[in-house]
Write a structure and sequence with these properties.
- By secondary structure, the chain is an alpha/beta fold.
- It has nine helices and eight strands.
- It has a single domain, classed as 3-Layer(aba) Sandwich (Arginase, Chain A), CATH 3.40.800.
- The strands form two sheets. The chain has a six-stranded parallel sheet, sandwiched between helices. The protein has a two-stranded antiparallel sheet with strand order 1-2.
- 53% of the residues are buried.
- Bound molecules: zinc ion.
- The site of zinc ion has 7 residues, from loops.
């Protein structure tokens, strides 16, 4: 456990416009204010947001330097809704996008997987890398739900076409759906892409106790999903970094973060789950084949 350094401007501006970065800094300096209905900046938000972005980048540094095969950056505010020019959905800077960009730019990687299991679509990350074939962005999310983006038909564009994978799921889905999609859809796609680094936008708001969404994933479900990701990293012999996103039922959040860290730091990855291919996973697999 280490304290993370705040991100410098260069890290932030590798993803965000200088105007966006200035806007957040000035708003915090003035004592804060509302950006939209959900997104509030306080006096301390600039420093917090710089640490959240810096923590995600420091996680990449530690993983790429071989400090450990797996790691986590556990900061707030979350990041995956923030795009290049806009804060939204509690997110000021896109921490996981900054981390992925840092892995490409500073560590010379050619292929990074960003897997977003937050219950909301990671629209910011989606848009930042929409034209980037070097980042496979894969999001599973409740549909319909905030922010309303992320249909299956959004597959990226230009050179990035096919490197954005959106898997919208019906509300009220639980472990059989979520775990099957991760095991039977996301993991095979990831194997094919052969990333040199796996980053997880890990929100825990698909949990049954969460009030902001209707999914019913359990503690064990999140541990199973973490296990699939851990096994993927081990198989591909690449590091796995988890970046905290949403999760607002605080007891469930705490339990699931601990459960995820236990899976990531166990001596061995868990064996594959004995899991039926869910019809939604089968459908997604067919669509994406
Ligand atoms: Zn969320």
């Amino acid at each position: 456990m280490t304290e993370s350094p705040p991100a410098g401007r260069d890290l932030l501006e590798a993803v965000h416009s200088p105007e966006h970065v200035d806007r957040i800094e000035r708003l915090a300096q003035r004592g804060g204010g509302s950006i939209d209905m959900e997104t509030i900046v306080s006096e301390g938000s600039w420093v917090a947001a710089c640490h959240a972005a810096g923590g995600a980048a420091a996680l990449v540094d530690a993983l790429m330097e071989g400090a450990a095969p797996t790691g986590a950056s556990l900061h707030r505010p979350p990041g995956h809704h923030a795009d290049a020019t806009r804060a939204m959905g509690f997110c000021l800077f896109n921490n996981v996008a900054i981390a992925a960009r840092h892995a490409l730019d500073a560590h010379g990687l050619d292929r990074v997987l960003v897997f977003d299991w937050d219950v909301h679509h990671g629209n910011g990350t989606n848009d930042v890398f929409a034209e980037a074939p070097e980042v496979l962005f894969c999001s599973m999310h409740e549909w319909p739900l905030y922010p309303g983006t992320g249909p299956a038909s959004d597959v990226g564009h230009g050179a990035g076409e096919g490197y954005t994978v959106n898997i919208p799921l019906q509300g009220q889905s639980g472990d059989p759906t979520w775990c099957s999609v991760v095991e039977h859809v996301v993991a095979p796609l990831a194997r094919e892409f052969a990333p040199q680094l796996v980053l997880v936008s890990a929100g825990f708001d698909a949990h049954a106790e969460e009030q902001l969404a209707t999914m019913i994933v359990s503690d064990a479900g999140f541990a199973t999903m973490a296990g699939t990701v851990r096994r993927l990293g081990a198989e591909l012999e690449v590091p796995v970094g988890v970046v905290l996103e949403g999760g607002y039922a605080l007891d469930a959040l705490a339990r699931c973060v601990v459960g995820t860290l236990e899976v990531l730091t166990a001596a061995e990855p868990p064996p594959p789950p004995d899991l039926a291919v869910h019809p939604l996973a089968a459908e997604a697999r067919e669509r994406l084949a």
